[in-house]
Queue: 3 jobs
Job 1
Amino acid sequence: MKHRILIVEDNILLAGQQKKWFEKSGYEAVTTIDEPGARRLLKKEPFDLVLSDVRLPQGDGISLLEWMQRERIDVPFIIMTGYASVQDAVRAIKMGAKDYLAKPVQMDELQSLIKNILHPRSVIYGKDKGILPRNSRQMKEVENLVRTVAPFDISVLILGPNGAGKESVAQRIHYSSERREKPFLAVNCGVIPKELAPSLFFGHMKGTFTGADTNREGFFETARGGTLFLDEVGTLSMEVQSMLLRTLQEGTYIPIGSNREKHADVRIVAATNEDLQLAIRERRFREDLYHRLGEFEIVLPALHECPEDILPLAEHFREKFSGELKRQTDGFSREAEQLLLSYGWPGNVRELQNKVKRAVLLSKQPIIESACLNIRIEDEEEGIFLFPENETQEKLSIIRALKICTGNRKRTAEMLHIDPSTLYRKMKKYGLNDK
């Protein structure tokens, strides 16, 4: 069955072009020009993704996302903006939008983003995919927690914003545990219909229902002996939560149509960007399931809180995609590095990955220039100038870096790519020694 995409765009020509591209790429696309039209379609038809502009003739993309959340319409949402509205994009990301794109939308970037979002319900990995390079103090603390909990067969709940790298942390836990030789199965809970959940989780026997032509293994059987990673666990319906809780409490399950009980020999690692305490108060998430999943909690920071990680991650993705796309690149220009550090990254690590992949594809020379990154910074008030052009920029950069690093001069010097002794001299020059 084709994935269905709802395009909410008042530029009829642009919407038509996007619809044509989606259909050519194997999707089914429906267009509407405003928020009321989108609401009507979402109420009567199923969609797998919504692609909406911020500004619309009636309503806007942000209020559409708010309405979908009130109506419990759990459909991945991408926001598009052609205005100086980074704040709108950040707000949409915090509200649960999967990502945002600046107009004019690059179709190759959109294609990559949609593929990441509309991935299968589950993906099984037979070996370690590699761990992302993270050097920041916050992520070092996360790694310490991972090393502490990995050897013990207890459930782990990973909390953090969209795109922050929760699956990478889950993999680190698995490959540092005694289950490392067994499967790591990642399940996208956000796309599991409640009517199919029993079969998907526990499997079914041949002839149990129409279409059950063969016996089918469920997630628990596929991941037997290994780790079952429940991504976006906060989106599960209450019915599925009850079913999952019963299995975790009893440690057993019965495939649909069978009378034989099976042992649930998996380690559970769950992740969500939801505020589960709020969801519990609003009776959208079971408190007993929360405690069962969260025997040990790990909270991931947003990428903008870890500026030391930005360039190592960008370099990691550049090397990765240079190999995959067979494009020779050797690094980033000074201006490109400055742009990477100055940007706020509302889409976190996932957005950085997508931007670098696009840059590798578009770069006509080994050194990637800033134009290839497709990053627009409308408000540079909080930016850091890695290569300041004057003393004003240099002083502001030192002040902002000191603030981010909570006064730690060694980390500040590393962020600014200068020696600690040079930082001390410059702080003395600008009268910042007491700050």
Note: Residues 4-117 form a domain with the Rossmann fold fold (CATH 3.40.50.2300).
Job 2
Amino acid sequence: MTDSSLPVTLDAWLTRLEAAHPVGIDLGLERVAVVARRMGLFDTPIAERVITVAGTNGKGSTVAMLESLAQAHGLSVSCYTSPHLLRYNERLRLDGIEAEDELLVAGFVAVEQARLAPEPVSLTYFEVGTLAALWAIARQHPQLAVLEVGLGGRLDAVNIIDADVAVVTTVAQDHAAFLGTDINVIGREKAGIMRAQRPVVLGSTSLPPSVSEYAADIGARAYHLDSEFSHSSTFSDSPEFVDGDSRDVALWNWAGKAASGQALCLEALPDPKLPRDNAAAALQALALSGVMLDVEACRRALSSVRINGRMQWRGQWCLDVGHNPHAAAWVAEQLSTTSSPGARTLCLLGMLEDKDADGVIEALAPAIDAWLPVSLEGDRARKASDLAQRLELNGQQVMHQADSPVEAAIWLQTRLEPGDRVLVTGSFLTVSAIMGMWHQASSDDENGSREQDEIRNA
């Protein structure tokens, strides 16, 4: 196959990959390592230092905070994450900017050429995307590369790159078809991103024993939350005023260690509006990568960090991609701390068939007044009727069922009262559908305004 026969646009490449590699997940490193070696990805480090993040929940927020913190300290930084919500380009960010189509296409071409010669190697959609992203990062060779594991850890394509610092955020049951239901086995898979004699940040106090055991077995240097590093709440001495009322400003302190063992302390950090365990883990990982933490830089970074689809507010609507009980419990806690007396909190819920719907419903229920279950599309889709049945068995009020998230949102828009809040959650697919609807509406408004301007100027 010649280069001229390959696609030239990103959309065409993604269509080709979806058709050519129908198996979405095929855990194992042998095939992807062969192609990586052909591409020269093992010849030299892809970045001056690499931080790899694994876990069931909290990976995306930890990566986002690492990126923001690194940039605030003046480092060049590349981030690879998955999945995306609206555009594939979201998966690769170079110094905070989404990768251009041309760079991604060049990466896909590099992977395809290496995949085919001298003997063809089969790769999944995710494996091709990961190799293309690593190729692009290596070309930039930033001071820091932050890599998010897609699923598991030990056998994930991202794990072909040796991490200078590993981070394990949380371990809970998810993706049972691939990782099983034994929490210790799942923990062992996540721990597979660790490397001997290198540091690993353990960002949860409820990790299964297998994680620390694996670190000890291979000689990784483990830094545990509430042991080697910790965080604590405090309040500002200068309260803010909202509508004339004085309100305490929640702040927090962090304590940790440098790679040398020196004790570190950062005080009066702003609330990042993301789990503080993950923020604390990000700070510890950055310190262990050799960055001398500056408190003012950390304050700037944490006050400005944002991540799409994680407690993302737009007016009365809140988007969160949480899809397991652990993530749902954190969302419920956030909603409960900001609730207003007499106001309703409604939940537009769409989930996949292989997720723990009962556990998510139970975790969210204390913060939700009424529900709108929706159907999703695809092989693993769960019907709204199934969710409605589960909700009713749990004693929850179902106000409407819909065949899609968009249909539910349109139905709800004319029925919202001024004080209502709507949580959209349960799956990346649920959140991306609503985001896509808003994006399309915004594009239509812009096009309409442009047409009106052209008419007036004619």
Note: The chain is about 40% helix and 15% strand.
Job 3
Amino acid sequence: MTHQPGMSALTAADPEIAGLVEREARRQHDKIRLIASENYVSEAVLEATGTVLTNKYSEGYPGRRYYEGQQVIDQVERLAVQRAKALFGAEHANVQPYSGSPANLAAYLAFAKPGDTVLGMALPDGGHLTHGWSVSATGKWFDPVRYGVRKETGRVDLDQVRDLARRHRPTLIFAGGTAIPRTIDFPAFAEIAREVGAVLVADIAHIAGLVAGGAHPSPVGYAPVITTTTHKTLRGPRGAMILADAEHGKAIDKAVFPGLQGGPHNHTTAAIAVALGEAATPEFRDYAHAVVDNARALAEALLERGFDLVSGGTDNHLLLVDLTGKGIGGKPAAQALDRAGVELNYNTVPFDPRKPFDPSGIRLGTSSITTRGLRPEHQPRLAEWIDRAVTAAASGDEQALERIAAEVHELLAAYPMPGYRA
């Protein structure tokens, strides 16, 4: 088996790097990949990221560049913008942010001043670093106020969001995060933001593909600013976008360039355009719904095996599992699962008494396994492997982990991976 597209020139020029790429491709092929922020891109997206577009520097925007020779690049970026607007029904799109964190920083630069109050979800409850957490620049340069989830339900406490917004009158309110297994109520957030005069920023980095495929409600029409990465459920390259209404679009563009970045990564822009084109197809719509079906089936199977799921289940691609009742921390469990051929990440859970680098939970996502073709009927077996691996980790049974890894490898042999072929 070998990486696709082929790497003959790379192999000849730098066999050491080529060998590492091949090893990584094989690793991705052989593992049940349940990291919620990862996916497999198509070979078309892979090809786009490796084109001569990487040679071109293009500060500015189409028709308004600071370098000559933009005749083709302008067409590439315009196509990506048009596809983003059409796919999400947005009035404005910026496809230049290098990743999700700069995309969120652009919202701060566009609509807030240092020291302004921002309201975001607390990191341990499922929020993101750039929503005002203390170790982030956003928590150091702004005055962060944090909301969380209800202890009894594990769901966002909208009463708390409203109370905090009325009390602190934030300039920005962030809705969304990195470990939210339930539907985000964008209309409710919009009502709160309107009441206090805040700009609502919907961070849909995790659920953008589900939104595009109609498997999660859209924030368009509720949040005037929407940030997202382009990988995860959207199944594109490592990049980002910002969607906005017409009123807020110009400020966003100025914040991205020249406010935060220089020239965009044109090869990534092309790959984003390819992924957006794929996401506009009926097949992708089926995929988005299949991601949710798989997540719900996996959640049900884990619950039957006695696992404690934050909020009791999932509405999207993501599951957050509290392992306290299993007598093991999230970190040793995640490391043992990796040895067993099941790749996921350890994660804090709401009201976690343990430290962030050694938390109580694990986070799972079904985007990658759905791309490989796994279906709801496979999820009980995945839950069995997870259960057996967690039990083996608690008892130090390495042979049991090796047996699981062999079973995983046997199953995955029947499900091809984009980018790696026999």
Note: The chain has a mean pLDDT of 97.
